[in-house]
Amino acid sequence: MARLCVVGMGYVGLVTALCFAKLGNDVIGMDKDTEKLKLLSEGSPTFYEPGLDELLRDGLDKSMLSFTNDLNWSIDQSDIIFICVGTPPGENGQPDLSQVEEVARSIAGNLNSYKLIVEKSTVPAGTAERVKQTIKLSGGEDVLFDVASNPEFLREGSAIADFLCPDRIVLGVDTRRARIMLKELYRDFDCPVLITDVATAELIKHASNAFLATKISFANLVADICEKVGANINLVVDGLGFDRRIGREFLNAGTGYGGSCFPKDVKAFAAMAGALGINNTLLKEVDRINEDRICSIVKKIEDALWICKNKRIALLGLAFKCNTDDIRESPGIKLVRELVRKGSIVACYDPKAMDNAKSELKSLGDGLSFAETPYIAVNEADALVLMTEWPEFVQLDYSRVKKLMRTPVIIDGRNMLQAIEIEKLGFWYSGIGCHRENRKS
Ligand code: UDX
């Protein structure tokens, strides 16, 4: 079994470390944040992800996992080093690769034997070459190592299943040795394994995320057209999706895509294309359509209530999607900010993301409160806005909700309720991509 080190215990890094440990590898999880390491060593995950706590406890119990902040020691002990550090947005949409560079320099100083360095973080094509150059410059010409790219395609909320049963594995390698080591590491996986050069693997990751984001923005554009012509977006995308060349997935119109990947990756991909002198209008438009989604939800609230100022809005859903507590680039969080800016009094609720939201939004002051239950949030509200597709929001007792609200208005940003049923209860209901008047007739 290979000895692995995973540098960076963020989302991708922790899931990668735990899953490789589950598969029987000896794994060191390395991070600078000692508070995080303390929690992990005690068996407490640092974010919510279904199944993560069992996997963490199991790895620790079986001594397949350890955590440290000592990068030099981790490198010394390992054959394969996965780089999973953050690549946050930098200037002009380009990713800030300083953490990747820092790890590369540390690796250069600690090459006691051959090491395979594997990029997992999403990076622009050409980054592996830079890592290689940095290690050579800082470590000397005769150091033994390879740099490979093995992008992850994990979705938050189903990250463990996505890791263990992927649609495909992409291995970007330049040498036979790197190819053999990575193929051996993934030998038990029953899915297509695509072996490419390193730059191609890097590009597959960026292009995949940009393409999925394009599907979502396309669906949102069609949703806007549906509202004008009286068509129904849910049925339009079903009609599109039956065509196997298109597929139904990632065509749900709604509040727009959020999270730590799509918004950042589309911008970074556009910036990379632009810097290469390639027309990036398509990617910029995907981003623009997405940025506009919050305005279109506000417009729906104004269609019902006329003016947002002093209106009490119950906002359910602060995570960027369900099954996660992650609020990065979350449409719910953006909407809270916009409504408070317009003078609304917002009461919000989320099943998992309350703590993260509280610390993110603490500066908003009196205009915002955090309710302990959805029913408390809707009490005396002028409108209820659904922003994340948590199943518990579908299962609410909407007769009770109606009695609690001041005016019975529901804006369904995820098209998750049955419009006709909700209207029968006496609600003014507005979903996405389906004109109210036309739908009723
Ligand atoms: C994404 C990619 O799916 C994954 O392969 C990559 O490794 C990381 O980025 P993630 O950000 O966890 O994963 O979430 P995902 O399920 O892809 O959803 C991203 C955003 O798009 C969410 O805000 C989601 O609500 C939104 N979305 C998704 C839609 O608005 N409509 C859809 O049809 C699908």
How does this model look, in words?
There is one protein chain. The chain folds into 3 domains: 3-196, 3-Layer(aba) Sandwich (Rossmann fold), CATH 3.40.50; 206-290, N-(1-d-carboxylethyl)-l-norvaline Dehydrogenase, domain 2 (Orthogonal Bundle), CATH 1.10.1040.10; 293-430, NAD(P)-binding Rossmann-like Domain (Rossmann fold). Helix content is 46%, strand content 14%. It contains 20 helices and 14 strands. It has helices at residues 11-22, 34-41, 52-61, 71-77, 98-108, 127-139, 159-164, 176-185, 198-229, 233-241, 262-275, 281-291, 293-305, 331-341, 354-361, 374-378, 391-394, 398-404, 419-424, 436-440, and strands spanning 3-7, 26-30, 65-68, 80-83, 115-119, 145-149, 169-172, 193-196, 312-316, 345-349, 368-370, 383-386, 409-412, 428-430. Helix 15 links the parallel strand 10 (345-349) and strand 11 (368-370). Residues 152-156, 209, 212, 216, 250-252, 254, 257-259, 261-262, 320-321 line the site of uridine-5'-diphosphate-xylopyranose.
Write the layout of secondary structure elements.
Elements: E1 3-7, H1 11-22, E2 26-30, H2 34-41, H3 52-61, E3 65-68, H4 71-77, E4 80-83, H5 98-108, E5 115-119, H6 127-139, E6 145-149, H7 159-164, E7 169-172, H8 176-185, E8 193-196, H9 198-229, H10 233-241, H11 262-275, H12 281-291, H13 293-305, E9 312-316, H14 331-341, E10 345-349, H15 354-361, E11 368-370, H16 374-378, E12 383-386, H17 391-394, H18 398-404, E13 409-412, H19 419-424, E14 428-430, H20 436-440
Parallel strand pairs: 1-2, 1-4, 2-3, 4-5, 5-6, 7-8, 9-10, 9-12, 10-11, 12-13, 13-14
Helix pairs in contact: 1-3, 5-6, 9-11, 9-12, 11-12, 13-14
Bound molecules: uridine-5'-diphosphate-xylopyranose.
Residues 152-156, 209, 212, 216, 250-252, 254, 257-259, 261-262, 320-321 line the site of uridine-5'-diphosphate-xylopyranose.
